[in-house]
Amino acid sequence: MNLNFSFIILTFNEEVHLPRLLDSIKQLNAPIFILDSGSTDNTLAIAAAYNAQIQHHSFENHPKQWDFALKNFKIDTPWIIGLDADQMVTPELFAKLSGFKNEEYAGISGIYFNRKNIFQGKWIRYGGYYPMYQLKMFRKGIGFSDLNENMDHRFIVSGNTQTWKEGHIIEENLKENDLSFWYAKHQKYSELVAKEEFERLLGLRTSALHPNLFGNPDERKAWFKKLWWQLPLYIRPYLYFTYRMLFQLGIFEGKNGIRFHYMQGLWFRLQVDKKLNILKKRNKVPYERNQSKRS
């Protein structure tokens, strides 16, 4: 049994994804913990076949689900790797994990993995989607789930981090090959994002990270999000889509990739702005109010 790290995986009806992920990590012989939120397909049988420890928790949002997992699984290894069920580990990343030794990472609290996002069989290479570094591996008791986010989940650690540029996490949600599934999913996400931004507008949410353009990948993302919140509704999605397509070369993505950038970079963000504007009007809050409180 690998004594250096354990895996935690979130699931909900993931029979199409889970075997792919578990096959990519099984030879690491690391403990596997699965937090399920009510699967009705073969997800739990698959998890049991791979000797995973399973717990159940009703889903509210991703940050709270990860928070529950970190607080309720009894993990004995010094490191934790948090993965989504629609991800998998490449052979190159597998090799790095195979050679991982805790004693060689003294003074490091977290490790960023590089992610490749696949949409309808195509690697989304441009538009700011690659490289995409995500904090996925962290020390037990130091890494935690950022509950200040409603939808964009991230782990946070105190102390130094390291970025692994070799190897990848491949993320491919096969359910999203059905565009009706994608649109329904992102309608729900847009409600969560609009609610979060409205609460930030009122000063009810703060950031667990210090926004820093020159900091780690999450600090840079926080800096850009802070800038985003200052831009006018309904205009910012078009600015962002133009930036992704021209300055981040999304125009070279090909038909499927351009469709993805349109849906994720423009349509989705217009839905957020529409729902945020409804919340503002319903509560009679001007957009300019408490701009200084957003952080």
Describe the SSE topology.
Layout: E1 5-11, H1 18-25, E2 32-36, H2 43-49, E3 53-56, H3 62-72, E4 79-84, E5 87-89, H4 91-98, E6 108-119, E7 122-123, E8 132-139, E9 144-145, E10 155-156, E11 160-163, E12 169-172, H5 179-201, H6 217-230, H7 236-247, H8 255-282
Helix pairs in contact: 5-8, 7-8
Over all CA atoms, what is the radius of gyration? 19 Å
Q: What's the number of extended β-strand segments?
A: 12
* Shape, principal axes of CA atoms: globular
Order of helices and strands: EHEHEHEEHEEEEEEEHHHH
Q: What is the distance, rounded to the nearest whole angstrom, between the alpha carbons of the first and last residues? A: 43 Å
How confident overall, as mean pLDDT?
A: 94
Structural class: alpha/beta
Biggest β-sheet, characterized? 10 strands, mixed
Number of helices: 8
Strand content: 15-25%
Commentary on this structure:
This protein has eight helices and twelve strands. By secondary structure, the protein is α/β, with parallel strands linked by helices. The protein is 38% helix and 20% strand. Strands 1, 2, 3, 4, 5, 6, 7, 8, 11 and 12 form a ten-stranded mixed β-sheet that branches. Residues 289-293 have low confidence and may be disordered. Strand 2, helix 2 and strand 3 form a beta-alpha-beta unit. It has helices at residues 18-25, 43-49, 62-72, 91-98, 179-201, 217-230, 236-247, 255-282; strands at 5-11, 32-36, 53-56, 79-84, 87-89, 108-119, 122-123, 132-139, 144-145, 155-156, 160-163, 169-172.
